């Protein structure tokens, strides 16, 4: 960070830039930084692993030999639930940091929950933070939103096709 006449009173771990860098270093949140092919890989593995639970649960409701279409759709949708939760956690973590970087005022705690303070960002820090939001975080959030939309299309397609499945 650049030096200012008034030092930043926000504790290091609560400064939005440091929170952003912490997410970049995080094993879990770093997934969202990956381009689509690399982002799909762990999500696909999680989806496949989730079939170990979703398959037997769906088979208890729809016997695969008699209702194979409903079994497959129910299993696939049930296996998508953990993937959706992972995507939601990624989205919420990055969205929180995005909001903290984009705001001109930083809320922080000096020593506990009872002493909230506000700090007005100087123009150069606000500009830097908003550039990070525009060029780094918003594209990442857009990718995650696209994956949510894909899951929504899957579920909508399943609902619309349900009456026609064997």
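^ Assign residues to that structure.
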């Amino acid at each position: 960070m650049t030096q200012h006449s008034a030092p930043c009173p926000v504790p290091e771990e609560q400064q939005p830039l440091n929170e952003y860098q912490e997410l970049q270093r995080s094993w879990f949140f770093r997934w969202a930084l990956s381009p689509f092919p690399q982002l799909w890989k762990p999500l696909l593995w999680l989806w496949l692993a989730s079939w170990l639970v979703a398959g037997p649960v769906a088979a208890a409701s729809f016997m695969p030999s008699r209702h194979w279409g409903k079994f497959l759709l129910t299993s696939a949708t049930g296996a998508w639930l953990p993937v959706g939760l992972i995507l939601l956690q990624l989205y919420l973590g990055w969205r929180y940091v995005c909001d903290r970087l984009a705001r001109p005022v930083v809320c922080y705690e000096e020593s506990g929950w009872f002493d909230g303070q506000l700090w007005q960002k100087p123009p150069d820090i606000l500009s830097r933070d908003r550039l990070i939001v525009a060029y780094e975080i918003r594209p990442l959030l857009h990718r995650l939103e696209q994956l949510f939309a894909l899951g929504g299309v899957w579920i909508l397609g399943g609902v619309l096709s349900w009456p026609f499945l064997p």
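The CA atoms of residues 14 and 113 lie 13 Å apart.
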